[in-house]
Specification:
Oligomer: single chain
Structural class: alpha+beta
Distance between the termini: 92 Å
Order of helices and strands: HEHHEEEEHHEEEEHHH
Radius of gyration: 29 Å
Length: 287
């Protein structure tokens, strides 16, 4: 091998070793401090990352290749956010303890899943031996914007006890999707039938009331609960409650007593939105 070529390789290896050493020192220093990344800072870092590779291309990988990789990662991230509805808005990390075989880090996460916000705080315990690395979540604390839903409270308590973050995010995505679907459905019918639909607890409540402007005291209440068991399985549960004044019953409308059963049949046949729409029309509330 030509001596000049050999020397060039030697110089390149030495340069890479020095760069690795500098990056390692920076990494170790950063582990001793709390770091915070907002969405704006992440975007700024991505742009800075793109500029660095545009200005200083490496011989082993072209800027176009790096740009393609970055665009692919951004596409994957966008797909996951759309699929799950989960978007992280902030993250902070602090190393609490670090030894040769043990590392303890404290994390804080906040974000949104559809229209529901959440906050997490937990410690990550990483231990290492000759065979493998073990990572355990401890001291998990969860705050969710789900009101006073007892099912969610029980589920969160179970997750906090077992430290199962994967189950939490999977179930959060399902629950928040139904939560958002209910909110949008209530908004749709309130906008379409403003004189008929009443939302006593607003769009985030779990029931809506239908009132006939021509019949004083006549009300139908559609209750829409979102049940979550302790394993995180989510199921929508809808029911109908009636309030019918005596004068209406006297007009041979006692068949409304069977309205809850018929409403459940409509749900099975047509789905939630169509069932509510048909209910409004069948009972004569549509003007």
């Amino acid at each position: 091998m030509d001596n000049s070529i050999f020397q060039a390789y030697q110089d390149e290896i030495q340069s890479l070793e020095e760069e690795i050493k500098v990056l390692t020192e920076k990494y170790e220093d950063s582990q001793q401090e709390s770091t915070f990344f907002s969405e704006e800072e992440i975007l700024t870092s991505i742009k800075s990352f793109q500029k660095e590779f545009h200005a200083e291309p490496k011989e082993h990988e072209s800027p176009s290749d790096l740009k393609a990789q970055l665009e692919s990662l951004e596409t994957d991230l966008s797909f996951l956010m759309k699929l799950t509805g989960i978007q992280f808005t902030s993250h902070s990390k602090k190393t609490m303890e670090k030894t040769k075989n043990k590392t303890v880090q404290k994390h804080r996460l906040s974000g949104n899943c559809h229209s529901m916000s959440f906050q997490l705080e937990f410690q990550l315990l990483e231990t290492q031996n000759k065979e493998n690395v073990c990572v355990v979540v401890t001291d998990l604390s969860i705050v969710m914007d789900s009101g006073e839903d007892s099912d969610v409270s029980k589920f969160v308590s179970s997750i906090e006890e077992h430290g199962n973050l994967l189950t939490f995010f999977r179930s959060l995505s399902s629950y928040a999707e139904w939560f958002e679907h209910r909110r949008c459905t209530f908004l749709h019918f309130k906008a379409k039938y403003p004189d008929v639909v009443i939302l006593p607890e607003g769009l985030l409540g779990d029931y809506m009331i239908l009132r006939n402007p021509k019949l004083s005291g006549f009300e139908l209440m559609i209750v829409w609960k979102i049940h979550m068991d302790q394993e995180g399985r989510t199921t929508p549960i809808l029911d109908l409650l009636t309030k019918v004044p005596e004068q209406v019953l006297d007009q041979k409308m006692a068949t409304l007593d069977n309205a809850p059963t018929r409403f459940r049949s409509l749900l099975l046949l047509f789905g939630i939105e169509t069932a509510i729409e048909n209910l409004i029309k069948v009972v004569g509330l549509h003007k």
